[in-house]
Amino acid sequence: MLQKVSIPMYKLAKSLCVLNKVHHVRLMSAAVNQEHNFFFRQLFDTVSSTYTYLLADKRTREAVLIDPVLEHAERDAILINELGFKLIYAMNTHMHADHVTGTGMLKSLLPGTRSVIGKASGAQADVHLVDGDLVRFGEYQLQAAATPGHTNGCLTYIFNQQCMAFTGDTLLIRGCGRTDFQEGSSERLYQSVHNKIFTLPDHYTLYPAHDYKGQTATTVAEEKKYNPRLTKTLQEFIHIMDNLNLPYPKMIDKALPANRVCGLY
After folding, report:
1. Which value, to the nearest 10 degrees, does the dihedral of the CA atoms of residues 19, 215, 158, 254 take?
2. Dihedral (C-alpha) 252, 92, 213, 198: value to the nearest 10 degrees?
3. Strands across the sheet with 205-208, in order?
4. Please, which residues bridge with residue 159 across strands?
5. Average pLDDT of the chain, as a whole number
6. How many CA atoms within 13 Å lie on the side-chain side of 124?
7. Were 26 and a residue from 33, 101, 157, 204 both cysteine, which residue would form a disulfide, CB within 3.0 to 4.6 Å?
8. Which residues does residue 96 pair with via DSSP β-bridges, in sequence order?
9. What pTM was computed for the model?
10. pLDDT, greater one: 194 or 9
């Protein structure tokens, strides 16, 4: 179920999360609040260094999968079936350039699954999200926050009930997505991070779409203090991004056409 988030609902969720922090109800990424009905699993693709995230309500058995990879669609479907979950949404944080999404394949493997992506991406999907939309599974909900800059359609999925956010390529652990192709804009990315992610409570755990050094998660406070790019001024950040001199993405010519059609090509 999708709906717009209301300001009182958003503030209430953030307040509850602060209470959780004060009373030590949950511990960061190593021990997400599993006392209740929430299930969380982080999966990995070694080729593209992509993280895929499975979230579920253990009471209703409804689940969502964030940023699936085509080559692991069967792995993910088997895991979901083994755990007795029903996948209702296969979601992307953006239209990826470094791997083909598994959303289309998962719809075939797990009938009833609907594909989800940001409307501004221009990609096909069953559900197109805009800033403020909510994605519900069981008693939980993800809030879509538009965080363009790496691409026009980048979304961060904020999970206030668990003090988490899934940042895609917009914000990586001690880094960020590149801005030199696919509608990239260093200024927009900087504004997205500072206005939509760094304004979350410091203790929120952040889960990126990729990591290339073996780290699995970070926090808002860490990135505000230690991110070597996004702790700079806007002009310094733009200069850094303009001088990365990165090679042309080796998968982009295959991935983008495929991802425009839900990974089915």
Report:
1. -170
2. 120
3. 2-4, 133-137, 140-146, 155-159, 164-168, 205-208, 218-219
4. 164
5. 90
6. 12
7. 33
8. none
9. 0.89
10. 194
Distance CA 142, CA 65 (A): 12
CA-based torsion, 79, 44, 177, 234: positive or negative: positive
Residue 34 pLDDT:
53
Structure tokens at 168: 């895609």
Judge contact between 134 and 144, C-beta under 8 A.
Answer: yes
Rounded Cα–Cα distance for residues 243 and 265 (Å): 34
pLDDT at 14: 52
Tokens 């030199």 -> residue = 180
Amino acid symbol at 29: S
Choose among 91, 93, 90: nearest CA to 120.
93
pLDDT of residue 36: 81
What is the C-alpha to C-alpha distance for residues 190 and 195, in angstroms, rounded to an integer? 8
Q: What is the pLDDT of residues 12-46, one digit of tens each?
A: 455 555 444 443 333 334 445 555 899 999 999 99
Q: Are 65 and 73 in contact (CB under 8 A)?
A: no
What is the rounded distance in angstroms from the CA atom of residue 83 to the CA atom of residue 89?
16
DSSP code for 247: P
Residue (of 199, 147, 218, 225) closest to 11 by Cα position: 199
